[in-house]
Amino acid sequence: MILGLICWVAGFALFAAAATATGWSTLTMMAMAVILHGFSYDFVFVAGYLYVDRHAREDVWAQAQGLLVVFTQGIGFLLSSQIFVGLVFGRIVGKSGGPQQWQLYWLAPAGFMAVILVLFWFLFRDDARSTSAPGDDDKPT
To answer: Does some domain include residue 134?
Structure first.
């Protein structure tokens, strides 16, 4: 998860840098940012699915996976698109935004993801039972 969050911060920072770059460096940074977005998705979302798979009991496994999808790819995407497109874009870039405004626009999600990265790094703790399969808690060791 941490590696995925790092990729997201780096990708948004590359988009910000590409906003004021010129020539081939702009395309190179943008291509690298898109590639990092793929890594971000894989490491964050797939790790989330694996975490739920490991910790959810068998009788609620499908509901837990469904709830994860609703929060991450439903409510999460809806809120982030409304916040960053509805509020941030209009205030920073506006109708006639230049390269500096676009750079600030991409630095906003980079900073947000950096804060999430630090919070996740320090606050997330996995308990010792995480190495057992679902339902193994009642089996003798």
So the answer is: no
Phi, psi of 125 (to 5 degrees): -135, 130
The tally of domains found in the chain comes to 1
Q: How many CB atoms neighbour CB 133 within 10 A?
A: 10
Q: Which structural domain, as residue segments, surrounds residue 28?
A: 2-123
Helices and strands counted in the chain (H then E): 7, 0
For the stretch 22-56, pLDDT in tens is 888 999 999 999 999 999 988 888 888 888 888 88
Q: What is the pLDDT of residues 100-119, one digit of tens each?
A: 888 888 898 899 899 999 99
Q: DSSP letters along 44-95, please? A: IIIHHHHHHHHHS-GGGHHHHHHHHHIIIIIIHHHHHHIIIIIIIIHHHT-T
